[in-house]
């Protein structure tokens, strides 16, 4: 593979919140709008509202009826698209954009989406949230036929499949391409004729539609609709393809027939903003309900309920209200997270945790506390936070987790450490409690989690959600993974690009 | 005045939290350490913990026993001092630094502190939190005698007074200089002989001392001690000057005699981090107590208590606990504030508020809510937030403010709009309620505030705090202000530098 | 077409010599080396020696036996490849590079060569000097079959033709591709098996081979061999393809049969460095000989022979020696050309010319002078220089040009203004003399030029050189040009990418 | 001393001509203009014409009748002042600027001139060409009295002397300051009342005055007048101070009485542009005359006269014309000098010389050549160039130098290596010839040099020029040098700033 050293600015792109190493990371957020005067300005605002879904890079492509325009940058939306000249480079009434967490495929702007190609039918732009689990398999075949890839992104496979399809219309070629693709995808595409939004047959990754006057908006989460001032219309259905022409006329297609949905349950636990609606439910209320379930399943005899901010706050409120134990801010989170500092050689044990989270010492000293966090991934941060509470004088620390143990990797667009790094894959709950040095540790049960999202319980024959990170039950084939694990069964030699 | 267009990078320095236009802003935080191996690394960490006191620029000066080294930058500590090469430029076991909000004096690194000068006695570095209220008066006199100013910072006056003092020792020259100075100052200075920390006779701005093994630490707030791993020793007393030599020997001086303290009460309301101790009290507990006082003084018949995040959270918890009304997160704050975006011409009413604060619509719809904020400055943001709650379906909005009405400007190092822009200087509470469109509005009383900080009530004969922003009673002379208002009484002509 | 706003640094890339707006510009220089330890460092040095062939962008690709590495930049070789870290990014014993004048296809690094693609056979890099005159025709067909272009460079057509060829070996696929291509090309390609250098059947653009110990070097001009310390071996023949494997074994191929050469004669007039050998002759001596021909054909009764520096110097020496009139530096050229300055509104007539070329006033005052320049393109600079000589007191100005009138555009890789901008296409010599305000004006004859390169005269039946810019006789078909001029005869609709 | 790490762009500032390590370097050029609409644009153009006098940094200060504006940058004028926004930052009809070679005092913009200070009398800007030879002595005294220095530039001493002078008018204070100063200085100053230009009593460094309509222009050389379109009026006399008020009224002062001039003779040899007039003579003609003197004093039996370009060209023409040996370009100079490249580990002997100067091999092979250069400093480059000629086949190489042996350091504003590095201080001419491997070597005699500038011979009792670099006879006291060499005789202790 070629190492492209594009000379982009190494701007201080990780200044600001959230680069938390011990969390799972959603890899992308997407946003599209058609029918407003400054579509790119609206897209910038919408992507800013989705910034929590990807902080490493951002791109917007617009169309002014004649040409496509594209601008990409490393870092936050605000750092790249808040000035007037950036927006002025993106004229037109149709625009789509993408925020991205992953650095898969190496640094460089060429992997930043939307991807664009000049096809025989005209320009084609695509923004993708998810992960194609047979991308390497498909790429090998395409390259053998003469396709030249620009990026190392799995998304580019879709473009080449569209470009080489023999069907006459673009929509047919697009569906033809998707039939070959396996995995998770929510897509927003643009062509000279309009916008296409679609979701994979299982609806693993979210995608919603809104309206702003006559304009149509698509976004990963409803919070983006709120921020741009659009009204929520409905979710795109699993396996649905919605086409909007330049006059705003919509048509809905179900090229794969009707399928049973398996949306990602972790969106409710952590990825989505609490002020979004997901699957018809308030994410905030679901998280409070998970906290309430935890309080019922795993009570603690304590003086204070303390969230690990900010993601643990709603569950902690739910736990506090259900248990009657007062909710207090025992950990203060800095607004200025930024990069890791040089650790001074003297003093400052765990300075790197403390500069993000500091104990509210006067509050916790001498108290028995219940700490609430949304999940435990590697466990290293949890261990340090428990220690910080003890150093601040807490007499007992009971740790409660608002999700079941995270035992498996995700192959559908979430950045997970390899399985051997997951604490829950390495030890049982008792050992985990010892590892993080908590007086007690409990996770919400899988059925408790399903109850919080409104189900009676998990249907183990046909689970209502994708919960593979907890259960290991993956709802699709994982071709590329199988090829890696059984290389001798490959139809083609493994090329080094893979 | 010369306009220095130094070619610094206009990096995205306001990416990240907190550039909230409708708040008062503390202008500075200072930090010093003597006796650790990598003093600059410790200073960077300490300044990061004080970032909320000033986000626009940062500087650190170190001393390695032979030479002074200085590095300054525009923007956050993390953006300027987190990489190893930045710290490597600052060798030595003594270092002091400064974070700064104000752009007074124009852009450019020359106003970024610590300021440094090569005096006849050797190098002299100074970091200042506060404001000298007769700086222009003193500067005019110094310039007439041949002094050449490098910056437009009031702090530089102190250096020239030290440089031109006729006393034999540096300490005498320093005290000689401070005797001429009026206003608010907490200072950390470095000389080839060690560090000097001092606080003005009224102790208007905070300064604390800590210990980390044998090393001595000074900082604006105790949170910086926590983050670097130092133990809190005590506050520097009003009018006290603490000298530490390079071997760590301390001596305390009170060159101005004993004075009655008048520390800034707004530190408790908003400026300080909730996890700091200030005047022996937990800032978090004081804020909760203010909320409790508010609940007693100004109850509301409502379903939910909702903080304006993040500064309103402790008072809201106090109000909720005292009133029994549930505390809920009805407003979700984005972690990715950054710069102002281009407002799209269609849609998106008040997009600029929404991209920071979004209504948790599912929670507040149909509810009577109590909104808690720490203060009202111009009132523009409050108005938009009330509207956002109504748009989200709140049936009643009762606004409660955790400080008395802010009616007066601060001349002691806090960035306040001119008086005519302060909502409370323009109208009474009833009119303010109408202006922000709240169903009811109430501020905590001045005595309620004093009770929250542990006093029985405000001693109007000799107030225990500086509360000039509420009361208009300034505890010092304001020479420069008087000169500006009565220019004909000036001893010197007003020069254009002023 | 998409407008790619890649965020490269707009560094002061045109600082330094040569961005002369009133000259023809060679569009590219290429260099390759195989068999040295730091191939990229050698390539950087070689490209620096070819910098006069293209100043706007530069790229180098290397191969270390396993992977290809690429680095591209806007501006000069020295600005992009002189630091050790740049070279360190390009390991390996084989490297090829490219300097580029043209901004055809829009700004952005994606058009900077070498272009690279991962083909089924492995990596493939290509550096091209010349222009493919049926590129649009071929591209339309490729896109219809599903090819996705990364750049707007004509060179990319070759890569796609190679990728989609059905021949089994890469060499066959490469020749298969070249058979479809018309126009001018000197190419250096790299594959995992070695390097391929080739020249179009007419040998329009130059390409030479050298040796440095066991290492093989290819370059546009011999000066690059001198600078890297290689010995000149021979020119690549027109229509020849030289293959070198990783062990340094050479093989020569003539896939198009033997053809009559038509090398570009303008290389001798202006493009090449005077210290290069071209077609077996010293460029410096040829230019002196052109000056001597001029002195014979168009003598002048004058006191001084003055070159327009630097390109007019050799011809002026030849003219002076042949005529016996002293050679003097009557115009001093600044070494610091850089960008155009803001023209002050007062004073400074023609400041933009003067900051490059200033009259040596004390020398020319009162003198009759012969000015020698290599060519006249638009005539605007010539006019200003004549005026500058008159302003400096020259009593007569006789202008002599070391090439025939430039009447036609070049379609073989030289940046020419459209024909209507060429002075010689708009008026006869007499009118040109008036336009530039010279007392007399003469161009060398076409036969005089052929004599200077060693021919008896131009063979009008079968010209020995490509002299289309003077004669209008293009030695190849110009398919794309014909398509543009007769769009109704196209086999495919003209797509907007073209 | 403090190490100020100001965050300026490390732009590729040495791209472009002239950073020749084996030459003496003029340290500065200055330019001022009063009475034109866009004074800064004119100053930028004028400084560009003086770029050869200093390539490392540039600054311009302007005055619009109310305020002073300043902009400084690292690198070339074109890189810093060619865009419209840079000029727009510098409004007003009066401007002065400075180009600078030296990095004395460390990197950073604070040493870039013009220096500026707000004095009691108003703003004061100063641009200086030269060197103050008692600057350290004066600085120690000023610091003891309370002065705080902003830079490590010797020029700042003048500002502090003006600021602390007790005389009533600025002009008196300025003269009072200059009386204390020893060494070489040409100065352009700006105050709110107008511009002051002056030259030290010996007139060591040049300064000329021109007129452009009603506007007055001052510049180091006449070439800057040519380029901005001004007419040359006269040189500022040694010891003269010219004052121009804002209405353009001039007054001339000779505060030091009449003095015998000792202008720098090396300006004629190398520093000045050949198209400048210096001391009433054409620099080009003087250099040709030096070449002619050399031909008379040191003839050579040779086939070709070859200059080391570009500085050796005029002397080579003079040598050729006097000797009758043909002048030819046997060395081709690259226009693209830029930074030093990484030397490849294979091949390329002396690549660093070759990328600047390449042999015109076809010309010199088999020939006996006379090489002409302006001077020999360290001798390392001369040695490599002789070798390059031999490698190209020259049968004999006779080296002729257009100045006497450079045996002594300059303390008047020219960057010279320490004496022990000067080849002529280390060995006699015969040994030098062997060192550079020339068949013969000769320098012009000191009287030959004086003849070339129009004198009958050097007046050894009272030399007409400063020729200390050849003779060791310094025309002023060198107080700081004496203090360094005899530290026990100092009146004050040597502080570390020195």
From TrEMBL, chains A, B, C, D:
Mg(2+) binds at residues 311, 373-374. InterPro entries: GATase_2_dom, Ntn_hydrolases_N, PRTase-like, PRTase_dom, PurF, PurF_N. Its EC number is 2.4.2.14. Its cofactor is Mg(2+); [4Fe-4S] cluster. Gene3D superfamilies: 3.40.50.2020, Glutamine Phosphoribosylpyrophosphate, subunit 1, domain 1. It is an enzyme of class 2 (transferase). GO terms for molecular function: 4 iron, 4 sulfur cluster binding; amidophosphoribosyltransferase activity; magnesium ion binding. One of its GO terms (biological process) is 'de novo' IMP biosynthetic process. Binds 1 Mg(2+) ion per subunit. Binds 1 [4Fe-4S] cluster per subunit. Residues 28-247 form the Glutamine amidotransferase type-2 domain. The active site is at 28 (nucleophile). It catalyses: 5-phospho-beta-D-ribosylamine + L-glutamate + diphosphate = 5-phospho-alpha-D-ribose 1-diphosphate + L-glutamine + H2O. [4Fe-4S] cluster binds at residues 264, 410, 466, 469. Catalyzes the formation of phosphoribosylamine from phosphoribosylpyrophosphate (PRPP) and glutamine. NCBIfam families: purF. In the C-terminal section; belongs to the purine/pyrimidine phosphoribosyltransferase family. This is Amidophosphoribosyltransferase. The gene is purF.
């Amino acid at each position: 593979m070629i190492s492209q050293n594009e000379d982009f600015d190494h701007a201080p792109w990780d200044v600001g919140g959230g680069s938390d190493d011990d969390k799972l990371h959603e890899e992308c957020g997407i946003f599209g709008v058609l029918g407003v005067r400054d579509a790119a300005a609206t897209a910038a605002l919408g992507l800013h509202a989705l910034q929590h879904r990807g902080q490493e890079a951002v791109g917007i492509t617009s169309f002014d009826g004649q040409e496509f325009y594209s601008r990409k940058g490393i870092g936050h939306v605000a750092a790249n698209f808040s000035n007037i000249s950036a927006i002025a480079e993106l004229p037109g009434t149709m625009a789509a954009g993408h925020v991205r967490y992953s650095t898969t495929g190496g640094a460089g702007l060429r992997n930043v989406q939307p991807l664009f190609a000049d096809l025989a039918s005209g320009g084609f732009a695509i923004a993708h949230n998810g992960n194609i689990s047979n991308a390497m398999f498909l790429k090998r075949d395409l390259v053998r036929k003469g396709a030249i890839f620009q990026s190392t992104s799995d998304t580019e496979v879709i473009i080449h499949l569209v470009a080489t399809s023999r069907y006459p219309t673009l929509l047919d070629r697009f569906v033809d391409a998707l039939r070959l693709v396996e995995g998770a995808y929510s897509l927003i595409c643009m062509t000279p004729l309009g916008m296409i939004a679609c979701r994979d047959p299982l609806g693993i990754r979210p995608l919603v539609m809104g309206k702003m006057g006559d304009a149509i908006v698509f976004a990963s989460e409803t919070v983006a609709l709120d921020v741009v001032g659009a009204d929520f219309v409905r979710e795109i259905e699993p396996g649905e393809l919605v086409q909007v022409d330049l006059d705003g006329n919509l048509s809905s297609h179900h090229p794969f027939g009707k399928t049973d949905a398996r949306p990602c349950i972790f969106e409710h636990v952590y990825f989505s903003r609490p002020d979004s609606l997901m699957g018809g439910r308030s994410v905030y209320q679901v998280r409070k309900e998970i906290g309430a379930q935890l309080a019922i399943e795993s009570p603690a005899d304590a003086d204070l309920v303390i969230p690990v901010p900010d993601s643990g706050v709603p569950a902690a409120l739910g736990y506090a209200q259900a248990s009657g134990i007062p909710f207090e801010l025992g950990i203060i989170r800095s607004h200025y997270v930024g990069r890791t500092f040089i650790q001074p050689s003297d003093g400052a044990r765990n300075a790197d945790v403390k500069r993000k989270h500091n104990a509210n010492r006067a509050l916790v000293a001498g108290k028995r506390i219940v700490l609430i966090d949304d999940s435990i991934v590697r466990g290293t941060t949890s261990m340090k936070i428990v220690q910080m509470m003890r150093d601040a004088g807490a007499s007992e620390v009971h740790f409660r987790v608002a999700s079941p143990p995270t035992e498996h990797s995700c192959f559908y667009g979430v950045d997970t450490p390899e399985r051997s790094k997951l604490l829950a894959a390495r030890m049982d709950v008792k050992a985990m409690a010892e590892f993080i040095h908590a007086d007690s540790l409990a996770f919400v049960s899988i059925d408790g989690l399903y109850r919080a999202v409104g189900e009676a319980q998990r249907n183990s024959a046909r689970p209502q959600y994708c919960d593979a990170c907890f259960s290991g039950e993956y709802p699709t084939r994982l071709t590329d993974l199988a090829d890696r694990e059984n290389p001798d069964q490959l139809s083609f030699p493994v090329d080094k690009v893979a």
